[in-house]
Amino acid sequence: MKPLMNLDEATFDDIEENGLYTSRRASLGRHIGARKLGYNLTVVPPGKVQCPFHNHHGEEEMFLILEGEGELRFGEARYPIRAHDIIACPPGGREMAHQIINTGPRELRYLAVSTLAQVDVCEYPDSDKLLVVAGESEGGLRKIFRSEVTVGYYEGEEGGE
């Protein structure tokens, strides 16, 4: 395995066509031997986004805009973005929620880099959902649910009240 790869060699292995959420992503990190960081090349068509507005409690993300233009939703703010902008999305509460929107007339291409946390909780403020992830994708835990669905600590436990 070579520790390098040119982006023109990337193979898009994650293609999403779900209305507004339309994109192509090419996993890169595993092809060059990355262990603690995830890397991918993301391409978003005009008027689309890659994923819902969200924030991570475990993982940190960084985006380098390669081509195109768009808008970054970050917390309650919105920022115009363009080629060569670098974006930091540290872990935290809803004030760190983020989303990249292609508002330009051509494809938006960016390099995404993230830490690979063994445990992460991701919030989706627009839909009030939570994603809980623990362990590797194969055999690990991955659950998405509405955050208003809560139960008492002892609910369902034998002898609990």
Kindly describe this structure.
With 161 residues, this protein is mostly beta strands. It has a domain of 111 residues: Jelly Rolls. It contains no helices and 13 strands. The strands form three sheets. It has a six-stranded antiparallel beta sheet with strand order 1-2-3-10-5-8, with no helix packed on it. Strand 1 and strand 2 form a beta hairpin. It is globular and about 60 Å long. The mean pLDDT is 95.
CATH level-3 fold name of the domain at 7-117 = Jelly Rolls
- The helix-strand sequence is EEEEEEEEEEEEE
Give the overall shape, derived from the CA principal axes. globular
The CATH top-level class label of the domain at 7-117: Mainly Beta
**Total strands:** 13
Mean pLDDT: 95
CATH architecture of the domain at 7-117, by name, is Sandwich
Oligomerization category of the chains in this entry: single chain
Main beta sheet, described?
A: 6 strands, antiparallel
Q: What is the terminal-to-terminal distance? A: 56 Å
Structural class: mainly beta
Number of helices: 0
Helix fraction, binned, reads under 10%
Rg computed from alpha carbons, rounded to a whole number of angstroms: 18 Å
- The largest sheet has its strands arranged as 1-2-3-10-5-8
